[in-house]
Amino acid sequence: MSAPLTLRDLHGPQELTGAEDLQLRVWGGSERDVFPRDALRALEHIGGLVAGAVTGGEVVGLVVGLPTADARVQHSHLLAVHPDWRGGGLARRLKLYQRDWCLARGISRVEWTYDPLRAVNAHFNIHRLGATADTYLDDFYGEMGGLTRVWPPTAWSPCGT
């Protein structure tokens, strides 16, 4: 029997290193392209969301949310799902975990960026999660490496929700 999958806040160096490893596995690129373990630890300490899906001691899903200047709003910085766990609804479960986590803390709005040129990502955000896009931010992150690399680089065009 395989180990159960648990969605929960991540803690400690081993789990946060697992969160780094997952990002590298999902997006490729270099260590420059991931949210590093020490920053995840600091974020966790100041009240941000660092949560994941864990099975058998391995982090197979990750959602990270940053506090904003408005205590009622969180910025969802990233969502990652291990390639072996895609297609089974884990990404949506992680976003629902984030929703419940936020509501328990009086956070009533979650905002994030996504690339509307990536059909799967846009479909997930708009149709599966029911998000709305009200802002277009041209070249928000600049050129990115790994899986998020888009050619030409100027085509990277996230929208706020």
From TrEMBL:
Residue ranges occupied by any N-acetyltransferase domain in the UniProt entry: 5-149
Cited Gene3D superfamilies: 3.40.630.30
SUPFAM superfamilies per UniProt: Acyl-CoA N-acyltransferases (Nat)
PANTHER family: GCN5-RELATED N-ACETYLTRANSFERASE, N-ACETYLTRANSFERASE DOMAIN-CONTAINING PROTEIN
Listed name of the protein: GNAT superfamily acetyltransferase
